[in-house]
From TrEMBL:
It holds the Pfam family BRO1. Residues 3-303 form the BRO1 domain. CDD domains: BRO1_Alix_like_2. This is BRO1 domain-containing protein. Belongs to the BROX family. PANTHER family: BRO1 DOMAIN-CONTAINING PROTEIN BROX (PTHR23032), ENDOSOMAL TARGETING BRO1-LIKE DOMAIN-CONTAINING PROTEIN (PTHR23032:SF20). InterPro entries: BRO1_dom (IPR004328), BRO1_sf (IPR038499), BROX (IPR038898).
Amino acid sequence: MTMQYLIPEPKTKEIVFEKVLSTDDSATLVEFKELSAKRKAVEESVNRTSNVTDAKNRGLTSPCEQDLNKLGAYIPLLFNLVHYADKIKKVSDLKIRWSSGLISQTIIQRKCPKFFQVDNLMFELGMVLFIHAVKLRERAMELVTTDIKKSVAHYREASGVFNHLSHELLPSLQSSLPPGKLPELTPSLCSSLSLLCLAEGQAVTTKSAEAGGKSESLLSKLHYGITQMLSEASALLSSRANGEFKDLSSRFLEYVSTMRALHELKSQKHLAKMLESEDRVGEAIGVLRRALAAARKSVPSKD
């Protein structure tokens, strides 16, 4: 069984674009209303406030597929709005409000999360793209048992979105954000999530290779590759700037470290089997002992 961890989603408040943006063009007003409708569908999706499945989404059996469909309808319109933002007049603050799903929270805080307001359309775009990547990863997890190729493709696509956030969109947005409050929009976290998705995709491929009876040498190298990616992800998380997402969920951090330890142990196990097949039993035992010792240090002691 492959390790899995669902990234908690942020929550949001309603935006009615035609009320906060001004235009004398009736066609543009219609576009604002369409944007608000698509945004409302995304809002209800992330807030889990609607059980109604519209006709367009009725053929999609997975709730995750439905969420991706809603995001796919909203994101192009949002990109277009961002592109023409300088030509649009605001009649009031945009009041773009999001909470964080990745900070440590009490039960009460989960039910009544704290929202942060940033009147910048790039803030909205960043949060929506983050959720899009999270949903791609979630869909990849769903497909693991039914379609390995599609699962790996979704993991890689999610990795690409996180990478785009980290390197293209987020650096210029940092000065507008409340410091340390929204880890979802920090470049280092998105870089680590990009690596995590690549590692998870390779874990799916490796599991398939194990089932296919590939050589111990190849399997050891595949698991080692996963370990290297997760080590880099852990390094990014531990080297974050002072005050940057200091309250990051311990469950998320433990998932990354435990997964890294697991694949390091598996890599060494396959190496030991290879050595055993070459009658190098003593070396194989030494490899396993060192691997177990390293795993005990890496895995969190608490449940």
